[in-house]
């Protein structure tokens, strides 16, 4: 990981979060924790009854990640999570193959001043592919609203 991107960021750098997730229907989130040997930072369950009934949507999501912090590149933020998950890739693959779940990385960018670099390094892309991860990017751009 490029630590300069985290420690020497411009004061206007966007806040970024990144989470690795395991999502599916009615699976045992404690089983993910046990299989990976990693405590989640969040376990989400669909609160809306009408959406819980939809079998095409995940209703449980096990997440590991970090809270918002400034990054100048989304690649550095995603890589920070991958540095923890990558050594567990065989455990992830076994869990996914035995359960009807999907895995991915969710990255959220909140912009108040500067925008980040919207690119992923070849290493990050390769690791996402090897983990068979989806990649989700949410952008909340308040730049025009704050001025």
Characterization of this structure:
The structure is a single chain. This protein has 147 residues and is α+β, with helices and mostly antiparallel strands. The protein has one domain. Helices cover 35% and strands 31% of the residues. The chain has seven helices and five strands. It has helices at 3-7, 29-36, 49-52, 74-85, 89-98, 122-130, 143-146; strands at 15-24, 42-45, 60-70, 101-111, 133-141. It has a five-stranded mixed beta sheet with strand order 2-3-1-4-5.
Descriptors:
147 residues, alpha+beta, 5-stranded mixed beta sheet, 7 helices
Topology:
Elements (H helix, E strand, L loop, with lengths): L2 H5 L7 E10 L4 H8 L5 E4 L3 H4 L7 E11 L3 H12 L3 H10 L2 E11 L10 H9 L2 E9 L1 H4 L1
Parallel strand pairs: 4-5
Antiparallel strand pairs: 1-3, 1-4, 2-3
């Amino acid at each position: 990981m490029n630590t300069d991107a985290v420690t020497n960021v411009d004061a206007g750098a966007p806040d970024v979060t990144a989470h690795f997730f395991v999502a599916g229907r009615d699976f045992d989130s404690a089983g993910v924790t046990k299989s990976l040997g990693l405590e989640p930072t969040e376990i989400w369950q669909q609160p809306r009854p009408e959406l819980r009934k939809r079998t095409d949507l995940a209703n449980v999501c096990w997440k590991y990640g970090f809270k918002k912090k400034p990054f100048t590149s989304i690649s550095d933020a995603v890589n920070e999570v991958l540095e923890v998950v990558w050594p567990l890739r065989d455990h992830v693959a076994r869990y996914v193959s035995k359960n009807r779940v999907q895995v991915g990385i969710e990255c959220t960018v909140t912009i108040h001043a500067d925008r980040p670099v919207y690119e992923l390094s070849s290493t990050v892309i390769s690791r996402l592919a090897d983990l068979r991860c989806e990649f989700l990017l949410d952008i909340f751009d308040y730049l025009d609203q704050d001025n």
